[in-house]
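Sequence design from tokenized structure. All designs in this work follow the same two-part layout: the structure record, then the generated sequence. An example of the structure record is given first.
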């Protein structure tokens, strides 16, 4: 097997499953560079401000043409700038499931990685959000969204497989370290 090489990663999955955490771990290990994410919402507790740039709605709209991809999630806009893509090493970014297909049509140089949990394992996500200090109403909102997203898991899995991606079932907090990262570094 050979290393990932210069393939960029787009990480998707149910709300709260660990997409951003995976991006951060890949960057720590120098596997990929986590692209800064611009958005028009407040930063969440614990978010790295150099990778998560909060703008006003007006500021976001002013620079919209600088992004190679944008999406709307939960009433907020998100974007990634063209200038932040690295030519000398792979990059990673995390997006919503509903935007995966359009992202891959526009960005052929990315390999998808899908993270999901079984419906019975949603408590893992809930506990993670509690630990990081998310308010109760935000947790319930994101849990509801995760349950909705799981209804279309097979369709998202099909899109990932058609684009030579990988699918990982998150069973606990060690899955990222024990299964996901080792597989990503050996992708053919």
């Amino acid at each position: 097997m050979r290393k990932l090489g210069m393939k960029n990663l787009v990480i998707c999955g149910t709300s709260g499953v660990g997409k951003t955490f995976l991006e951060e771990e890949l960057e720590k290990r120098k596997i990929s560079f986590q692209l800064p994410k611009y958005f028009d919402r407040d930063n969440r507790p614990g978010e790295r401000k150099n990778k998560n740039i909060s703008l006003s709605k007006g500021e976001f709209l002013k620079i919209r043409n600088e992004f190679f991809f944008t999406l709307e999630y939960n009433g907020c806009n998100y974007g990634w700038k063209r200038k932040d893509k690295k030519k000398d090493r792979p990059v990673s970014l995390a997006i919503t499931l509903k935007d995966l297909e359009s992202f891959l049509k526009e960005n052929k140089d990315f390999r998808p990685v899908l993270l999901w949990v079984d419906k019975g394992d949603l408590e893992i996500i809930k506990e993670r959000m509690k630990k990081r200090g998310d308010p109760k109403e935000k947790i319930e909102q994101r849990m509801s969204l995760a349950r909705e997203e799981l209804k279309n898991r097979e369709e998202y899995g099909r899109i990932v497989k058609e684009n030579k991606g990988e699918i990982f079932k998150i069973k606990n907090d060690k899955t990222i370290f024990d299964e996901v990262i080792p597989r990503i570094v050996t992708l053919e």
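The radius of gyration is 16 Å. We note this feature because it recurs in several other targets discussed in the main text.
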